[in-house]
Write a structure and sequence with these properties.
heterodimer, A: mainly beta, two-stranded antiparallel sheet, 0% helix, B: mainly alpha, Heme Oxygenase, Chain A, 2 domains, 13 helices, 63% helix, binds FE2/S2 (inorganic) cluster, binds fe (ii) ion
């Protein structure tokens, strides 16, 4: 039996996939990641889609010089 | 990155005493110094460096010299007492993490990476990289001290992140190597330790905190807290630096370091929260206070350095020592 790929769906943001992955996008583009864990963007706000870039984070607008 | 420089220049009685000892002299008695000042922080930096790469011509045996270790302990106590006095104690790690995950946005946000993204000039970016070189040329090393002080899932989680910091087995992908590439492209000297003489105590203090927490088992929670603070905040900050560097027309090797950190630290955040902090606190809930201390102390020192950089730049001055 090959080892199962572990996928964690996070509450706030990405899906975490273990092991090297290749993601195929609708237009056929393939994105590879060789990290031990890859964070796949599910919020669609990432500027590096399909990889998470933390754009899913809550933002607060600062009015005065912080 | 292979060469390394001679001893730094002393900045007062305490660093003179340490440098004297490194040259083979005895360790003179010294009066306590300003905990964040140049003199104490340089002295501590030199003591710690014996545990990393050492100095050419300095006996490696001095790493375990009792007199030097005794002096180091005094400096550490002074530094630690100042940090404990400066940051409020707490034990709500979840609340600290939540706060770090909220991203302040807008043109009013004050911060070094915000400034470099919006309006920073190339000389300021080069100064920023110069300050950061004290840590990044040994990136992940201070946190590696904590590995044998952890066990089980938290240890495995921390090593997962460290492995990525060390390039996942590819030496040319090591973050320290990517940082050196960036320095060269920005026409900076990537020799290990080249800029120690140019950076103020505020810069050395940040790295000294990492080593302090790494070398003391008692502070292992704080080491993890400091590590978490960096991993949780680095991705958006790195993105701002990438954009600033693009605006300034920096080359690809320069951009690559922070570009890699946008993606890597988006993952590291998740691993640190789920696979390091969660199992660590489940196994040793009494470490919560230490973790919070590590987060707050590193934020506090980061703010001090940030204020120094922005303050100097607002006055049109260099943030480096002459
Ligand atoms: S899930 Fe993180 S950026 Fe979309
Ligand atoms: Fe890194
Ligand atoms: Fe990281």
């Amino acid at each position: 039996m090959p080892e199962r790929t572990h996928v964690t769906l996070t509450e706030e943001g990405p899906a975490l996939v273990t092991g090297p992955v290749e993601v195929e996008l609708p237009d056929g583009e393939r994105v590879r990641s060789d990290r031990p864990v890859t964070a796949l963007c599910l919020c669609r706000r990432s500027r590096r889609y399909p990889l998470c870039d933390t754009s899913h984070r809550t933002k607060v607008r600062v009015k005065e010089e912080s | 990155m292979t060469r390394s420089l001679t001893l730094p220049a002393p900045r007062g009685p305490v660093s003179s005493a340490v440098l004297e000892a490194l040259r083979g002299g005895s360790v003179p008695a010294v009066e306590p110094a300003d905990p964040y000042g140049d003199d104490l922080q340089l002295a501590l930096h030199c003591c710690y460096e014996l545990h990393y790469r050492g100095f050419p011509g300095v006996s490696p045996d001095l790493e375990w010299d009792p007199a030097l270790l005794g002096l180091r302990r005094d400096l550490e106590r002074t530094f630690l007492a100042a940090l404990r006095a400066a940051v409020p104690a707490g034990d709500d790690v979840d609340a600290e993490v939540e706060a770090l995950l909220v991203e302040p946005v807008g043109p009013q946000v004050r911060g070094v990476s915000h400034h470099l993204q919006r309006a920073g000039e190339l000389w300021q970016l080069r100064e920023y990289v110069t300050h950061r070189s004290i840590y990044h040329l040994k990136e992940a090393d201070p946190q590696a001290w904590v590995i044998p002080r952890l066990s089980g899932a938290a240890k495995a989680g921390l090593v997962t992140v460290e492995h990525d910091e060390y390039g996942g087995g590819r030496p040319d992908h090591m973050h320290a190597a990517l940082f050196a590439d960036m320095m060269r492209e920005l026409d900076l000297d990537d020799t290990y330790g080249a800029y120690v003489d140019r950076v103020p105590g505020a810069t050395l203090a940040e790295v000294n905190l990492m080593t302090l927490c790494g070398l003391h088992r008692e502070l292992r929670g704080a080491s993890v807290g400091q590590f978490a603070m960096v991993e949780l905040t680095s991705s958006p900050g790195s993105d701002r630096l990438v954009r600033g560097m693009r605006r300034l027309g920096c080359g690809p090797a320069a951009i690559r370091f922070y570009d890699e950190h946008v993606e890597a630290d988006a993952v590291h955040e998740q691993v640190v929260r789920r696979s390091v902090l969660a199992p660590l606190l489940a196994a040793e809930p009494e470490l919560a206070e230490s973790v919070v201390f590590g987060i707050r102390a590193s934020l506090h020192l980061g703010e001090r350095l940030g204020d120094h950089l922005l303050g100097c730049w607002e006055r049109g001055e260099s943030s480096l020592l002459p």
